[in-house]
Write a structure and sequence with these properties.
The structure is a single chain. The longest helix is centred in the middle third of the chain and has 15 residues. The protein starts with 31 loop residues before the first strand and ends with a strand. With 142 residues, the protein is α+β, with helices and mostly antiparallel strands. It is globular and about 40 Å long. It is 27% helix and 27% strand. It has a five-stranded mixed sheet with strand order 4-1-3-2-5. A hairpin with a 3-residue loop joins strand 2 and strand 3.
Length: 142
């Protein structure tokens, strides 16, 4: 018999009975999708190095949708899966610093952060507000 701490799943890959029907709500602690826009800026850096760093960041962070950049600022947009806004924002605020060494990003600081849930993002688009969808996907100059 395996010992499992209270509240933890007792098996891996086993089936779990789930209630169905119109009256069932999704548990509040399940991950949701959040649209994140992170803005960074700082001292001028060579455009070639900024682009290369953002391309490496996109490789390291697979959910990165698009990055726009200039020699002294950049904007990164992506979807984050998190339990709530606090978790999504915490991950976003660590993104630049945690990848700065591995992606050789400029020593810029975060100057803006927007995190909205999927429904709000799509509602804004439908009403003609907010940034348009990230097309084309990738790393592009402003």
């Amino acid at each position: 018999m395996r010992r499992v701490r209270p509240g933890a799943a007792a098996s891996r890959g086993g089936l779990t009975s789930v209630a169905t029907g119109d009256g069932c709500a999704a548990p509040r602690d399940l991950p949701r999708l959040w649209h994140v826009t992170l803005s960074v800026s700082g001292a001028r850096a060579p455009l070639k190095e900024v682009r290369r760093g953002l391309e490496q960041l996109a490789h390291d962070h697979p959910f990165l949708l698009t990055s726009r950049y200039a020699d002294d600022h950049a904007e990164i947009r992506y979807w984050e899966e998190a339990r709530d806004l606090h978790d999504a924002a915490a991950v976003a605020l660590r993104l630049w610093g945690e990848h700065r060494q591995s992606a050789q990003l400029p020593p810029w600081e975060i100057v803006g952060l927007e995190v909205v849930d999927r429904e709000t993002y799509h509602q804004r688009l439908a009403e003609g507000y907010g940034a348009p969808p990230a097309t084309p996907v990738g790393v592009h100059p402003f």
